Amino acid sequence: MTSIQVAQRGTGLLRTFNEAGVLSAADVHVALRLGRLGRESSEQVLFAAALAVRAVRSGSVCLELHRMREIGVDADETWDAGIDPATLPWPDIAAVVAALRVSPLVRGGPAGPLRPLRLVESQSAGDAGPLLYLDRYYQQEKTIRRVLIERSGQHPVVDPDIVRHELDRLFDEPVGAAPDRQRLAAALASTHWTTVVAGGPGTGKTHTIARMIALLDAHHHKATPKLPALRIALAAPTGKAAARLQEAVREQAESLGLPELTAATLHRLLGWQRGRTTRFKYHEFNRLPYDVIVVDETSMVSLTMMSRLLAALRPDTRLVLVGDPDQLASVDAGAVLADLVAGPVASTPNPVLDQIIGPETTVAEAPSELTVLERTRLRGGIVRLTRGRRFGGRIADLAVAVRAGDADTALELLRAGGAELSSNAPDDIATVRDDVVRAARAGTAAALDGDAVGALAALESHRLLCAHRQGRFGVERWDRMAAEWAAAAGAGSDSFQAPWYPGQPLLVTANDHEARVYNGDTGVVVRMPDGSLRVALQRGSDPYLVHPTQFPAVVTVFAMTIHRSQGSQYDTVSVVVPEPESSLLTRELLYTAITRARRHVRVIGTDESIRAGIARRVLRASGLSRREEDPGTR
User: What whole-number distance in Å separates Cα of residue 560 and Cα of residue 543?
Assistant: First the structure.
C-alpha cells in the first residue's frame, strides 16, 4: 500500500502528518487497524498510536509523549522537503495523554480485554514523562527488567581464597593506586549472576573474556571437583562477531588451560526453528542448559533478542554481557547495553566481592580512577574498561572528543593532521585513490603468489566507509570509483567473462554455518599453486580457505557501510561523511567509524558536516532506566 492510498483513507492529523512525511504509510495503516479492532475513533489516540509505531521503526522502544514534537521528517518518505515539522498542527500533549488514559486501546473495552497500547506515567522526578508503548515491546522490556532484578537479588557462592589466587595467576598485579579493570571484571563475573563489561575498541574485552572463563573454570574444578565440567556458551548477535569471538578465545586457550569452545549466533544458541509456532527451542519453559553464557558485541543486540535470551536463562547461569555502548546500536528497536550501562543499577550487598578485591576499591573515598558512580556500578555487576591497548594518541583523542560531543577539539585534531589523522574535502580524493590503489596492488601481488596472509593484510590495510548506500556519499558510488581506480592500476579484473580474479575483495552477505561462512565476513580471492582459486577469510592467525562456489551470497567490495564495519579493524580508514542534513549522520556513527582504525583515520567531509554529526545523537527512547515497575502503568 502506497503513502497516497493510505493518506486518502486517513483523515485529519494522520493525513496531514502522512503527507508531510512525518508518518509513513505503515504507521498510518497500523494505527487505523488498531482503531478498528479496539473501537477507538479518537483522532488524538490514533495519532499517538501512529507515532508509537514510527518510534519503533526508528529504533526506539517507546514514544516519549513530552518529546513527540521533536521528531523530524523521514528523509526517505518525505513528500515535501520544504515542510518544517515545527509548523505542523501538533496536538496539545496534555490532551493526548488525557485521551490515552481513557482509551480502550490502553484500558481495554467493549471490543475485548486486549490492550495493544501501554501508557506508563512515572511519579519520579527527573523521568522523561509519560511513555507510550506498543504492548509487545512493553512486555519485552518488562521481562528484561524482571529477570535482571531477580538475578541481582542474590549472588553465587564462591570461595574467595580460590578466586583471589586465580586472579593473581591470570592478571598482572595492579600498578600503584590505579585498579586493573580487567581484573575487576573477572572478579565481578565470579561473584554476580549477571555481569556487564563495557569498553571501546582495544580495551581488552576479548582478553578479559578468556580470563573470566579461565577463572570460572578453575574455581569450579577446585571448589567442586566431583561435579561435571562447566557448560560454557559463547555467543554474539551476528555470525561474523561469533566467529571472531571464537577465534580470539581459542588463541588464548592453550596458555590459559581452557577447554575448546565454539561460539554461535544468539539465534542458534536459542535454537531458532523456522516455521514453528514457538520460534525458539529454548524459552522460559525450556531453559538453556549452560552454566556460563558470554555474549560479545552486545551493543548490537535488540530489545526483542535480549528479552528472549534472559527469559531462557536458568537462575543459576552466569551471564556476561560485553560490548561498546557508544557504538551504533541494533538495527532493530532498543539500545539495551547503553541502557544497562547508563541507567540505575539494582544490587544487593556482596561481602564476598569486598573480600576478593578489597573494600577500598568499591567504597573508599580516597582518590582513584574509580568514581563514586563507578564504585556503585561495580556492586551492580557493571564495569567499564578504559585503557586502550589497540591504538592511542590522536585516534584515541579524536574518538574521545566525538564521544563527548566536543566538535571544536575534534576539528582541531583533524586540522593538525599528522601520521594518525587527516581530513579531506569531499572533492579531494587523490589521497584516497592512492590508498585504494596501494592496497589493491599489494593484495593482487600477494594473491597471485598464493600468499593468503599477505593478501588479507593488504585487504585490511585500508577501508572506505560510508554512512549511506546510495547517492553522492553512498557506498555504491565510492565502491564503483574504487573498483575503477584499482582496475586502472592493473589490480582489478581484466575480463568480465570470469566472476573471480586474484586479489578480488569480497563481502559475504548471507550465513552458511556448515561452511563456516558468515554474513559480514570479508575475504580476498587467492590463486593456489595448482592454479585454482580460493577465497581467504580471516580466522585468527590462520586464514580459512573456501572455494568461491561455496558462498551462499557474496559481492565484490571496495567500500562498505559503517554499520557493516562493526567488529572489524583496518590500518587506515577513510570515512565519507554525508551532508549535514543526513539523518544517518550521528555522533555514534562517527565514533564507530573512527574506532575501526588502527593507525590512521581520514575524514572526508566538510567542517559543517562533522559538527552536525557530533552534535546529533541517536536518542532511543526506553523505559529500562526505570528499573522498578512503575505504579502508573496502564
Answer: 22
